[in-house]
Fold this sequence. Notes:
alpha+beta; 9-stranded antiparallel β-sheet; about 40% strand; 2 helices; disordered C terminus
Amino acid sequence: MSPVIEEHARARLITDGPLTRPVPVDLRYDAAEDPRTVHITLPGGTDWAFGRDLLERGLRTPIERGAVRVWPCGRTQLIVELHSTDGVEVFQFEIRTLIRFLARTRAQAAATAAPSDGTPEKQPSRTTTATRPERGAPATRG
């Protein structure tokens, strides 16, 4: 069984107002679950799952897949825009946080690599839990 990689990070929630606010997010990767998928869990327990390659490509150039858009903002920031029936949420991340997380996921994926079965990358998905899990506790999936 491969270890789960979790990283607690801060993002800035971008709003229509003049101010942004920092919010805690959890970055998670479980190669045993799906070696091509990463999760971002937002405050309130909303969990977004999408292909790891989406974040990796978004570090260099704008990319969109389904309900998720990712693009670099200058040399040190990355914007992640999430669309759902509840509306749009836009988060700004420090690139170095995501680079560190993605490097750890690549190393884990290489260590547990299985031959590719030709399955396409995961389409973005969103699940919501009633409450945000405690730090270090496993996320509840709906």
